[in-house]
Design a protein that fits this description.
The protein is α+β, with helices and mostly antiparallel strands. The protein has a domain of 116 residues: Sporulation related repeat (Alpha-Beta Plaits, 2-Layer Sandwich). Strand 4 and strand 5 form a beta hairpin. The longest helix is centred in the first third of the chain and has 21 residues. The N and C termini lie far apart (88 Å).
């Protein structure tokens, strides 16, 4: 009988010590996987080639890229040349800026390029001259206000850094 108790006690001790291994929580492994994915996405976006600039003159930079409207309702308003005020990587941020600019009276279009950046467009035209004129008008409007720090704080973008986007099809 003592042999059975001794054998049972030994079995319990072996089972007890083998189950005391530290186990990683399921939440921690999911968190670490998400962090790794985020780091990979950040490094991939940092490695993305910059958009080629076709010309950079006194009327502002003109970049050429393939974009698609985020909303189907904006498709008819998106023309060959557009005035871009911001490029954002997070859609909710782009939509928030769109809402603020629409309250100012702009007909804002959100478009996404092939790299996944959201272009916030305040005007779109069929010809380059009209787009450059609108860009100059906006820059002039906000540079006469004189308080660019307040504008940067309000919108989060510098209005002297607008550029023209030539849409590729």
């Amino acid at each position: 009988m003592n042999k059975i108790y001794g054998f049972g006690l030994a079995l319990l001790l072996v089972a007890g010590f083998s189950s005391c291994k530290p186990k990683q929580s399921a939440y921690k492994s999911v968190y670490e996987a998400a962090k790794e994915r985020e780091l990979q996405e950040n490094s991939a976006s940092a490695a993305t080639k910059p958009t080629p600039v076709l010309s950079n003159n006194s009327e502002g930079a003109v970049r050429r890229e393939k974009i698609t409207p985020v909303n189907d309702s904006d498709a008819s308003n998106l023309k060959a040349y557009s005035v871009v005020v911001a490029s954002l990587s997070v859609k909710p941020n782009a939509e928030a800026l769109k809402d603020r600019l629409q309250k100012e009276g702009y007909n804002v279009i959100l478009a996404q390029n092939e790299q996944g950046l959201y272009r916030v467009i305040v005007a779109s035209f069929d010809d380059k001259a009209s787009a450059q004129a609108k860009r100059s008008e906006i820059v002039q409007k906000y540079s006469t206000v004189g308080d660019t720090a307040t504008l940067r704080k309000t919108y989060g973008i510098p209005f002297d850094d607008l550029w023209i986007l030539q849409r590729m099809y």
